[in-house]
Each structure stands twice: as C-alpha cells, then as structure tokens.
Amino acid sequence: MRTQKYTEVEAIIAKYKNLASETKAVKQTQSAFTDFFAPEDFQRLDYVEQLIGYIYQLSAGKQANENVVKEYEEYTRYYISGLISETEEAFLVDNFDILLDYAFEHLNVIATLGLDFDEPKEWSSLVPYLLKNKKGKIFIPNSNNGREFVGLDRCDLVVASGFANAAMRAYACRQNIEQYKNSESKESLWSDLADDMFDAVLAEFSSFSEISIEDTFVACNRIVKKGGDILFCIPKKHVLSEDTAFLHQYIKEQKTLQDIIQLPSGNILFHFVKMPHDTIVMCDATTLTQKTDEGVIDVTAFLREIEMAGMPEREKNTIIRRFKYDSLNADILLPSYYLRLPKSGVQISEITETIAAPILSDECQKEDHVVTINHLSNVFSKGRFNVDELPLLKTDRIRRYYRVNGPAVIIAVSNKEMAIGYTTDVTTFLVPKNLFVLKPTAQVDVRFLASQMLSRSVQDQMVRLVYGRGHNVTLANSWRDLVRLDIPNIEQQQKQIQDTAFKDFALQEQYVEMREKGFKHSIRLRKHALSQNISALDSLFSSLEYSMQEHKGHLKAKDQLSSVSTMTVGEAMGIIRSRLRTICERVAKLTDEQDWGKCEIIEPQMFIEEYEREHYSSKFIFKHLWENFETNSFAKDVFDKKTGKLLFHKGESMNTAWFPKRALQQVLDNIVANACAHGFTDTTRKDYMIQTSWTTDGLNLLIKVANNGTPIHLDVNSDLILEYGYSSALNQNGHGGIGGGEIAEIMRKYSGDVKILSTPEKNFTVTYVLKMPLVSLY
C-alpha cells in the first residue's frame, strides 16, 4: 500500500541510485559487461541490496543477525556513504519496515530457492487470516521474504530457505526468528525435529522436489501439535493425479481439513487444523488477484468475498461456500468442482465406451488414417471429418496411438478452451495419445455428443479439470466420472443438433457481416487518405507550374518555388516521389485478398530469432526470454517406457505452430511499426525494447510481443486498436489506419486470434498476444 512514507522512501532510494550511477566506479563496472562476461564487482550495481544491507546493520547494531550480515556482505561493501544525508539514513532506519516493502519488490539478485519447497508467494498474505493471528511456534521451509508472518501476533519463527530476508522482516516486525539447517540424516524429512514441536507449518510443495508429496505431508503432520495448523500448497497437476490419492483417504478418515483454496495459478492450498471437523470451506480464488501482480492473492477482495458468501447476489458466481464432509467426492479435491460444476445430469462415463490402451505406430498398418489436433475445431459445424480424407500414418517414426472404430468424438483441451472433431463413419482410424476419445453408446448420437462437448456448461467443467502445460497438458484421471451433461431422447437430440448448426451458421453470418462492414469502412478511410495525398500533389504541381512560368519554362533543383515559399524545386520533387510511393502502397491495399502462401510448420524460437536478425533497428533493441533457461527441443532421446522404443529424437522440436510464414512476418511488421509510431515517441529515451516470448496451452501456440514505450491512453479501449479503420495517425506511414485491423484479420483467417494487453503500471506497457494452432507432435 502506497503511503506518504512509502513515497518518501522511494524518493530516497531513487536519489541514491541516480547519484551512485554517476560515480566513476559504477560506470566502469557497467562498461565491463558483455553478453558473455560479468565483472567480479557486478554487485556494485545492486543499489537496493546495498541500501537494505547497510540500513539493517545501522538499525540493528549489535543485534544484527550474523547470517544476514554475511549474506549481504558482498553488497554492503559497495555502499557509497554520503550520497544520501544522515537525516535520510535515519529516516530509512525509522521506517525500516517500509524500506523492506519497497526493497523486496525491486530486488535484482537476492533470491531464495528451496529444493523441495517453493516460496508461498501467492498466498502469503492470507496467512494471518487463516491462522487467526495465533501466537506460537511456526515452521517455514521456504519464506517469501517474511511476508507470510507480517500481521501475525508475536510468535517464534523457524525458517529454512530464504532466512536472510525473513530475518530482516522479523526484525522489522519484532518477531523472534531462528534458522533451520536441514539435517544431514537421510532417514526422513526433518528427522531431527521433534514430534508435536510446532503450532503451525507453512509449506508449498515444489514440483522439482525429490521427496514425495506423501512423505512431505506426513512430516508436516508429525511436527505439528494437536489443534495446530498445516498450510500445505500443492500444484494442481499433483492434486488431479494419483500422487494425492493418499490425501483423499486421509481427509476422509481424519476429517481435519478445514479449508481448500484454489489459487490464481491453479495450485491448491490445503488448510488442516489437527482436530475433527463436520464441515469444510471451499474457495475458488483464481480471480481474486492484485492489479499490480496477477500471481498474488488480493487479501482485501478475499475477505470481502467471505463477508458476502451466502448472499443472493453470489448464487450464480459463488466464490466461497461451506460443505458437509458427507458431500465430498473422494476422487476430487478441487474447489471449482464443488462451487460451479453441475451435480445433475449423466456422467460421461455412463454414455461412452472405454477405449483400449494405446499402441505404438510400428504395430499399425501404413494404410491406417490418423486424425490430429489440426483436424479439430472449436466450432461444431467445422468439426466433422471423413476418415478416408485423413492423412495416412507416418511410418518413419514411432508414436503412441489409440485405435478407434467410429463413430467417435475426438477432443483436445487447454486450460481455457476446447476443440473437437467427430466422424459418423463406421470405420477404424488412429488417434494420438495426447487427444481424448469419446465413443458414444447406442442411445447417444455422435453429433449430439460433439455439439454438447462445445457447450458452455461442458467446457466450463472440462477446463477446470485441466492441468499441465505445453505438450504435457492433460485432464484429471477421473474426468469422465466428473463431467456431466443432460441426455434427452433421440428426437430431442436431433433437434439440439439442428439448433447448434443454426447457431453456428448465424454466428458465421454475423462474423462475415461484421468483417464486410469493417472492410468497407477501411476502404472509405483509405480513399479519404488517398484524396488527401492527391490534393497535396495537386498543390505541389501548381507550385511547380508557377515556378516554370517565373523561370521562363526552365526548372533547376535549387530554384525557389515562389516568393512566399522557401521550398525548392528539388525538395518538391522529393516529396512527390514519396507521396507517389505512399499512393501506390495504399492502392495495393485496396484489394480484397492477399496471398500469404500456404500454412507451414513454424518453430517459434527460430522464427523470432531470424526475424530479429533481419529487422535490426537503431531505435530499439529486441530481447527474447528463452535463452539459457528454456528450450523448445527435447534435451535427450525419449523412449517408450514399456517397450524401450525411441519416440522422440534429441533436438526434435516440442512445440510448433501451423501458420503461413509470410503472414506471421507481416503481423510482426505491423506490431513493430505500431510500437515505433505510437510507443517510441520520446526521442530522449535510449532504452526502447521489444520483448518476445512464447508458450503453449495444449491447444494453441501463443507468441507475446511486448514493448516498453508510451502506454495506450487510458481513454482508449485496447480492443478498438484491432478493428479495421481505427487509427490515431490515419495519414502516416502509408498505413491509413489498418495496421491493427490487418493483424486481427490475418490471425483469424488462419484459425488464430490476437488480443492486446495494456499494462501502463508495468515496465512493458503494451503486449500483443498472438494465438495460432499447434502442430501435433504425432
């Protein structure tokens, strides 16, 4: 929370940073950096670390924790005395807690990494509420800079990873703290800690941990007293997999679970209180995030929802509700399932047949046809396929497939949307293992089942059961038993199929009408821009004609056009040539269609890096976010676990898009041009940057292109920028207000999409998110 004191602290830090950056030693360190070399004194540039390390010692004096002093020693030795006054230093001492609030949001280097536990960053602000400000002894395996105990009454803290920053926070909050160093004993986790030793444990399990979730929970449960609290956060993929089967049984038998909170990331926070309960509170806090950080719970919004729980206006959008233990489904511990998913209807498992286990492609026939993710659609009327029109099996590589005898519905999922394909053919085909197959029983029409899988109700149920990312996206093991839909009789099914097809047709008609209207509007704007250029040319030619008369029919480049105009003939001819080129460009863009070539496989990292090399600019620099820590290729050969046969070669791409290369290049051209025209306008700035990154959601490949220029004006709806004809600079650079509209048109033409994120409070103020279909690994 920004207060007057926070602003003053921020101003003092800014003063120190600005003055320090002008010193000779700092400039020498900055100039020593290269892409491959960091100087030994690089901590000289970490001004915030220098300040908090120095002010901590100044404030704590002899009480300063030696471990904190030692960890910050490499920074404090570069603190430059005299840049801020003694009065300002004293102000920081008196407001050390506020200094830490600022510092821990802006640290460059200090980072805490727990091997078995992550920082409780998302939910640390909830701890005082969940623990009801209880006193006692609390164990924290990995601290979030001490933020989890801010607001608690005086207690005794034991912290393992992240101790230095937690100790600073404990000093500011007047809390007692000691460091826990992991026992060398490998007998069990925390084997050196006594049973019933703590009043609470705050732990977030890491997906990279070598210790199992069960062993971790057992250790937490062992060291907490009867009546004590366990806040145990688990990644969603573990909650929805077999990894937590033990937890389901434990909860059912012991009934000590008091709250389950689904966090913005999808991770699940379990709050156990070691005494039996009759009820359990479910909370879906995925939308309750801070505006400045979407990965952190907004505790004010959270508490407001608690106050409003049970009110009539919350019945359709329930965030939190209390349930009886008897109503729990032992197979699912997901708040959104209990809060929003329907309890009526038929389980999908009751109306579909089970598909046999997958087989390897070398057990198949080369005449077998294969359906892939690229044959699916998020529109029912486009989802039908004929088996004999599918491509044949590729025999040059081994993959896992299901053998399916149609009719059947094929499904692909992401954490936001679905795509389906279906066939009425009574024949056999292959389906890659990364897709899901529903083969309906006799009482269900395959077309009806396909249409219902794209209904809002079923999609809401399905996407909540998705976990993982990229090519590892999948559904909860028991999803067929959890997803429900209503099954009418055959006559009503036929009617619903027709209704769905008519709705598709109406939406397509609406889209075509909107596109045509936008295109006509853009044509009018372009014609207007052309008429402006032609009027300007007419004026120039009139001036040239006058000059010829004055010079007896002869013109020289240095001749002045008239007695009132300082423009020369040479300058006028240059303008004419430029305007003619602009006119030619705009006339070319008046055509209805442009051939962007055929769709092809695009590997995102290679494509972006090539684009950056070919579009070097002195106005800004390109930066991408995957080098050194993320790769889009398999690091080693991948073998089938059962047979040992090679599935994927080392170096083979994991994720590729299906899109015309020239079209994607044009999209990036327009995005970069928009950044230069509207964002990079302050000529005094030398730090303009275009930052690219990519990810996948299991269904689409997403490329993000962000810039750190001038933010979109608050009065401008960012969605309008993607409409044809919208422009704040209609007659500049030959675009005529069609840049954003052209981006959206190209993306949607090839089954993709685009949206613009405006984040004026962040360093990168504008981000284009380009979505395009993934190419199946199979």
Describe what you observe in this structure.
The strands form 8 sheets. Strands 1, 2, 3, 4, 5, 6, 7, 8, 9 and 10 form a 10-stranded mixed sheet that branches. This protein has a 5-stranded mixed sheet with strand order 23-27-28-30-29, with helices on one face. A 4-stranded antiparallel sheet has the order 12-18-15-16. Mean pLDDT is 85; it is low at 109-113 and 728-738. 35% of the residues lie in helices and 19% in strands. Helix 5 packs across helix 6 (96-106). It has 778 residues and is α+β, with helices and mostly antiparallel strands. It contains 22 helices and 30 strands.
Percentage of residues assigned to helices: 25-40%
Count every helix, treating DSSP H or I runs of 4 or more residues as helices: 22
User: What percentage of amino acids are in beta strands?
Assistant: 15-25%
Computed over alpha carbons, the radius of gyration is: 32 Å
